[in-house]
TrEMBL record:
<dbReference type="Pfam" id="PF13180">
    <property type="entry name" value="PDZ_2"/>
</dbReference>
<dbReference type="InterPro" id="IPR051201">
    <property type="entry name" value="Chloro_Bact_Ser_Proteases"/>
</dbReference>
<dbReference type="InterPro" id="IPR001478">
    <property type="entry name" value="PDZ"/>
</dbReference>
<feature type="domain" description="PDZ">
    <location>
        <begin position="279"/>
        <end position="361"/>
    </location>
</feature>
<dbReference type="InterPro" id="IPR009003">
    <property type="entry name" value="Peptidase_S1_PA"/>
</dbReference>
<dbReference type="GO" id="GO:0004252">
    <property type="term" value="F:serine-type endopeptidase activity"/>
</dbReference>
<dbReference type="GO" id="GO:0006508">
    <property type="term" value="P:proteolysis"/>
</dbReference>
<keyword id="KW-0645">Protease</keyword>
<dbReference type="Pfam" id="PF13365">
    <property type="entry name" value="Trypsin_2"/>
</dbReference>
<dbReference type="InterPro" id="IPR001940">
    <property type="entry name" value="Peptidase_S1C"/>
</dbReference>
<protein>
    <submittedName>
        <fullName>PDZ domain-containing protein</fullName>
    </submittedName>
</protein>
<dbReference type="InterPro" id="IPR036034">
    <property type="entry name" value="PDZ_sf"/>
</dbReference>
<keyword id="KW-0378">Hydrolase</keyword>
Length: 465
């Protein structure tokens, strides 16, 4: 019995050792981990893009804006007649030749229920006949009411007894970069077409000479869409699509529109005055991207650096000074020159604006009364002329005419600068408006006689061929 009891104890002892060894070496431990508040948190994710969680394109409703817009956008057909001369005798004597009709197309926007339509000047330029097709395929003859080539805006009208759907002008100054917009046009007479995009930039200039201000968008706009509507998601008309920047002539990712505030002002001027009333401050900005601008640090300035102020202009009378930096006009922040010209394009002569300038590192706000343009580069010859001041009238002993303030290099040997032009051919010149018309009518193939007055009041005549 003692022997059996001893064997039992040995067996139990050996089993315990075997079980312990198995637990220690073969079975994986199961630990409980206690975390503290400082431990790195662990997040689960569905791998959904964060853009889908906010307001993206799928959550923006374009349908209401599209429904309000498509029936107010029309197709515009422009018929022009060009004469092809078959010989040099046809050219000089106006005989013979072949008359060829050419058709151009674009879009337009109905802005009143009685048939006024705004479009681009380049859509209707040189038209012999204008035809408008509505979105319901009804076609009408249209007449030209007025046009402004500088802003590329034109106003035409159709006659109908029906009350037409139309779009009211919105406030383009309130448009924000990144805002969703629709470009609506009627190209190729296929009824209205809608594309979507965002506002890519504001106050964009395509021509350094004019510094016109455009809204830039990445909504697809092709040549047939010119004159169509740019609207926001509320269906407000905030621009007239006018241009694309492309070497091929087709859409390449961005396009441009005349801001609605400029288009509205042009249309109102044409309807009220018969022409566009342009207001000017009388300042010239310092040119950028030049060696002088880089050396003076002007390229890095946020605002418009005043390099020149015209005599007796609104800026001159308000007390603006050379070297002032325009930072704000009324409530519009000014970062570059097209910001300023875009806002001035909505104003008329005798309007008053509050101009905030930086002078000696201090901000100063001055009221400026805008005036009619006093300076002009005349067509054909390219001379810069200005209206006469009271001092000029006394010095040159004439009450009318325009003073030559700049002469292109090809005319610098004629002693023109500083003299007053009083007549071009048989046309009397009273101001820069007369000069613009007279020089614009100069023939490339004839001679031009310019009558001038010097500081002694003596008349001189020069003949240009």
């Amino acid at each position: 019995m003692k022997r059996i009891g001893g064997l039992l104890l040995v067996s139990i002892f050996a089993g315990a050792i075997t079980l312990g060894a198995y637990k220690l070496f073969f079975e994986r431990p199961n630990y409980a981990i206690v975390t503290t508040d400082e431990a790195q948190p662990v997040f689960s994710t569905s791998y959904t893009p964060t853009s889908a969680l906010g307001s993206g394109i799928n959550e923006v409703d374009f349908t209401n804006a599209a429904e309000r817009t498509v029936n107010s956008v029309v197709h515009v057909k422009n018929l022009t007649l060009s004469t092809r001369r078959s010989s040099v005798f046809d050219f000089f004597y106006g005989s013979g030749g072949t008359v060829t009709p050419q058709v151009g197309t674009g879009s337009g926007v109905i802005i009143s229920q009685d048939g006024y339509i705004v479009t681009n000047n380049h859509v209707i330029a040189n038209a012999t006949q204008l035809q408008v097709t509505l979105n319901n395929n009804q076609t009408y003859e249209a007449e030209l009411v007025g046009t402004d080539p500088n802003s590329d805006i034109a106003l035409i009208k159709i006659e109908t007894d029906d009350k037409l759907p139309y779009l009211a002008f919105g406030d383009s100054d309130n448009t924000k970069i990144g805002e969703w917009v629709l470009a609506v046009g009627n190209p190729f007479n296929l009824t209205s077409t809608v594309t979507a995009g965002i506002v890519s930039a504001k106050a964009r200039s395509l021509d350094t000479r004019s510094n016109q201000s455009f809204i830039q968008t990445d909504a697809a706009v092709n040549p047939g869409n010119s004159g169509g509507a740019l609207v926001n998601t509320n269906g407000d008309l905030i621009g007239i699509n006018t241009a694309i920047s492309s070497q091929t002539g087709s859409y390449v990712g961005y396009s441009f529109a005349v801001p609605s505030n400029i288009a509205k002002k042009v249309v109102n001027d044409i309807m009220e005055y018969g022409n566009v009333q342009k207001a000017f401050m009388g300042i010239s900005p310092a040119p950028v991207n030049t060696r002088d601008a880089i050396e003076k640090g002007i390229n890095n300035i946020d605002g418009v650096y005043i390099e020149r102020i015209e005599e007796e202009s609104g800026a001159d009378e308000a007390g603006l000074e050379l070297g002032d930096i325009i930072k704000k006009v009324d409530q519009i922040d000014i970062h570059k020159y097209p910001d300023l010209t875009g806002y001035l394009g909505t104003k008329r002569p005798n309007d008053t604006i509050n101009v905030t300038v930086e002078r000696n590192q201090e901000l100063l706000t001055l009221p400026v009364v805008l005036k009619e343009r006093q300076l002009l580069v005349v067509p054909a010859m390219g001379m810069e002329v200005k209206n006469l001041t009271k001092d000029d009238q006394k010095r040159f002993r004439t009450k009318s005419g325009v003073k030559i303030t700049g002469v292109p290099e090809r005319y610098r040997g004629y002693g023109l600068e500083g003299k007053v032009i009083v007549q071009v051919d048989d046309k009397e010149i009273k101001n820069i408006s007369d000069a613009d018309t007279a020089f614009g009518a100069i023939s490339r193939y004839g001679k031009t006689i310019i009558t001038m007055v010097n500081e002694k009041g003596e008349r001189e005549r020069l003949i240009f061929q």
